Amino acid sequence: MRRVLWLISALFAAWASMAVAAIDTYEFADEAQRQRFRVLTEELRCPKCQNQNIADSNAPIANDLRREIHRMLDEGQNDEQIVDYLVARYGDFVMYRPPLTGKTLLLWFGPALLLLLALLVLISVVRRRKASVQTTDNTALSAAERERLSHLLDKKSHD
Amino acid sequence: MRRAILLLPLAIFLLVAVFLYRGLFLNPTELPSALVGKPFPAFDLPSVDDPANRITLADLKGKAALVNVWGTWCVSCRVEHPVLNKLAEQGVVIHGVNYKDINADAIQWLKDFHNPYQLNINDEQGGLGLDLGVYGAPETFLVDKQGIIRDKFVGVIDERVWRESLAAKYQALVDE
User: Fold this and answer.
1) Structural contact between residues B170 and B151, judged by C-beta atoms closer than 8 angstroms
2) Is the preceding peptide bond at A111 cis, omega within 30 degrees of 0?
3) Which residues of B33-44 are buried (b: 16+ CB within 10 A; e: fewer)?
4) 3-state DSSP percent of chain A in helix, strand and coil, to 5
């Protein structure tokens, strides 16, 4: 009985290790290379499916590009060369992080610009409000007014 | 001044509305090709009908042509095929790149549906397709006499597409 159990667990272990191998079909020289593969495939966009990166997509083109990236990593090309290779074929579109060019200036600095604008608006609104509060807060009465006030109050108390 | 500020939200709304309205008519699958204006990538591949017959970039030069990337696995290529046949009959030079296909299937397809291609490149491994930045068949490249890619069309070429946009572009390349 014990032997049967052992056999079953050994078979299960073998099956489990096979299953892992079936998912990860690429072999890497070292952990650093595996890491680079992961980062590259996650930062590059699948040209066919558009809203998925190359790592996630099951499209045939994404599969080809994963293989191609793995091949280039194996050849010892650096990340920049690999990205350039893909950009030369599919354009800037494949980069999830677009390069800083004249065309993408607004894309990169637009949010900061909007924030700055919002801050300016906020400051001007606060300033204006403060100024208007100050003017209405000016409750000091002139001498004539004070005279008139006490006169009115006096008159009322006498009644 | 006060009045003008009150109108500001309306102005912003209108601006956003204009952009969104325009977005309705944009085709997100149409990517600007990185290859327009660049030379057609070099290749050395067998012909579909005869593996012994090699086709290279040199064969492509000399005549303005359409280079059509297709495959028997591609459903919309079947829709496009009769249009290509008609264009070939009219004398339009069309070359085919059979992309990631089984060669026997491709031969059968050309036998069944007629062959509009002058050069019939067999790109079984998809290497040329990769160099061309192909992400979905059918894709058609307009190549001039010097072998420079001048334009690219992704999707099915139907009669309307040909009449309204590609015919004039092709004619311009022929007349160059």
Assistant:
1) no
2) no
3) bbbeeeebbebe
4) 75, 5, 25
Contact A64 B130 (CB under 8 A): yes
Map residue A155 onto helix, strand or coil.
helix
Q: Which of B8, B29, B99, B130 to mutate to test the interface with A (most CBs of A within 10 A)?
A: B130
Interface contact B155, partner A, CB < 8 A: no
The three-state secondary structure class of B36 is coil
Contact call for B29 and A50, based on CB within 8 A: yes
- The answer to whether the beta carbons of residues B143 and B41 sit under 8 Å apart is no
Q: For residues B138 and B152, what is the distance between their CA atoms, to the nearest angstrom?
A: 11
Q: Using CB atoms within 10 Å of the CB of residue A144, give its burial: 0 to 12 exposed, 13 to 18 middle, 19+ buried.
A: exposed
pTM above 0.80, yes or no: no
Which CATH number is A2-99 given?
Answer: 1.10.8.640
How far, in Å, are A1, A44, B34 from residue A98 at the CA level?
A: 62, 10, 14
For each successive 10 residues of chain B (176 residues), what is the average pLDDT?
81 94 81 84 91 90 92 91 93 92 91 92 90 88 92 90 90 88
Residue B126: which of A50, A64, A89 has the nearest Cβ? A64
- Say if B18 is an interface residue toward chain A (CB within 8 Å): no
CATH class of the domain defined by B33-175? alpha beta
Among partner residues B100, B131, B136, which is closest to A89 by beta-carbon distance? B131
The three state secondary structure string of A50-77 is CCCECCCCCCHHHHHHHHHHHHHHHCCC
Domain limits, chain A? 2-99, 104-158
**Is A93 close to B136, i.e. CB distance below 8 A?**
no
